[in-house]
Amino acid sequence: MSIPKAELHLHIEGTLEPELAFALAERNGVDLPYASTEELRQAYSFSDLQSFLDLYYALMAVLRTEQDFADLADAYLARAAAQGVRHAEVFFDPQAHTARGVPLGTVVEGLARALDRAPERHGVSTRLIMCFLRDESAESALETFEAARPHLHRISAVGLDSAEVGHPPSKFRAVYEAAAAAGLRRVAHAGEEGPPAYVREALDVLGVERIDHGIRSMEDPDLVARLVRDQVPLTVCPLSNVRLRCVDTLADHPLPAMLDAGLMVTLNSDDPAYFGGYAGDTFDAVAGALPLGEDDLRRLARNSFLAAFLDDDEELRARYLAEVDAHRF
Ligand SMILES: [Zn+2]
Cα–Cα distances in Å, from 251 out to 148, 173, 236, 306, 329? Predict the structure, then answer.
């Protein structure tokens, strides 16, 4: 679906397609345990979270140089633009790279190289969001933040991702305070597999402005009332929720109920190379499986721009919103 939209929940490492993985493996002399792109493509049909994470981290071995990260981001931006994405706020996981010896500066500057030229090359404006792995220690997150200080002019916000249960937001209070003091915006994954209490903690302890996923908020009516009152954006990723078994099928997804409740919901693709679709595919999939009309789809697209970190360019936001309003299905 080509309606203009912003992508607000997108892990750049989750956009690595088998063809690019093989090309980078060859360029860097990395051996992949797959004979062909077809065999690798089959491995992408994993059955659970652990097999997804195993593959996800194994493939990162092919990303080594600034050019690799620039190529990864550029390939994503080309695909996104072809599916109507006009603005992309891109997550990256520095610890997944520094842990295997790739300097943080290589990652940030490589990604920034592609993001800087995205408006001209793809017609897409961008922001970069640095995420901490919540199954790593709070100290590791703080060390990562300190290492990123020379690059903070490239980074708009911090986020929190990876395995949620057992790693409540409050564990990362200190690094979020440091990020706030440095003038960064704050988001966090919460209420994907973790309980509604984690959503409250992300808001109250970390001071986040958006909740990534947040679908389990629906179990807590008081929390829903608060999220509606404050119009806290939730970056929902239905294809990811199905693949990782947070919901059984797309038809069971709470997206329509979330919209009915008045929540500020946006639609996103999370790790599109692994979860079966980019932003436009996601709009198509929910439109096909859920009782959503054109008004709902337009509202989701409008919300994505309203929730975007475009406060420093309200003119651009207004232009994008006008494009949504002018769109014909
Ligand atoms: Zn995510």
Answer: 41, 37, 15, 27, 22
pLDDT over threshold 80, residue 50: no
Would you say 233 and 262 are in contact if contact means Cβ atoms under 8 Å apart?
A: no
CA of 189 to the centre of ligand 1 (A): 7
Q: What percent of the chain shows pLDDT beyond 90?
A: 90
Express each pLDDT in 287-316 by its tens digit. Answer: 999 999 999 999 999 999 999 999 999 999
68 labelled ligand-binding? no
DSSP reduced 3-state for 36: coil
3.50.50.60, 3.60.21.10, 3.30.428.10, 3.20.20.140: CATH of 14-305: 3.20.20.140
74 is known to lie in a ligand binding site: no
Spell out the domain ranges in the chain: 14-305
Q: How far is the CA of 10 from the centre of ligand 1 (A)?
A: 7
Q: Is the pLDDT of residue 109 over 90?
A: yes
The alpha carbon of 326 and the centre of ligand 1 are apart by a number of angstroms equal to: 30
Q: Is 327 annotated as a binding residue?
A: no
Which letter, b or e, does each residue of 198-213 get, where b requires 16 or more Cβ atoms within 10 Å of its Cβ?
Answer: bbbbbbebbebbbbbb
Q: Is-above-0.90 flag for pTM?
A: yes
